[in-house]
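One thing: could you explain this record?
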Amino acid sequence: MLRIGLTGGIGSGKSTVARIFRLLGVPVYDADGATKRLYATHAGLQAALKEHFGADIYIGQELDRAKLAALVFGDPEKLALLNSLAHPPTIADAEAWMARQRAPYVIKEAALLFESGSAAGLDHIIGVSAPQHIRLQRAMQRDGATREAIQDRMRRQIDEGIKMRLCDFVVHNDEQQFLIPQVIALHQRILQLAAR
């Protein structure tokens, strides 16, 4: 079974591409969704977050994500600390999930695939690329955030051009090329690789 990474910058449309792969019957692990689940269920992660960000970061079992965001998004050191605490349990969860799957290939969807170090354990990486102005507009509409807030988040991710050069395959979600045919062609190609 091949282990395929799927990544892209904010607003690139990687979640849309992941949905197309799911419709094709490919198991997809959503790392962002898994991290949110682990914030509520992983005792070690909860303890670490309380230790570093204060016990009031949780309301019962629920992480106060607005409070955490306010603490980390203006402070690169605190954001790096949060990532260093959250990435290991998420990577372990993904490994366990992949071991349970029975398919020619599986996909791990993660915005910070390279930044977290989890790309190293994958066979191939798919990048979803879109021009910055389109990514910015999509993210502003989706998140209801300001241009400045989205640009700040973009600056904290690996440069789009560098990220795409690190990928084995690139899907172009630029509103110029049809997305579904690209994903279907890539699906067929990966099935061929998996059959070797």
User: Anything to note?
Assistant: Residues 60 and 193 are 47 Å apart (CA to CA). The longest helix spans residues 76-100. The radius of gyration is 17 Å.
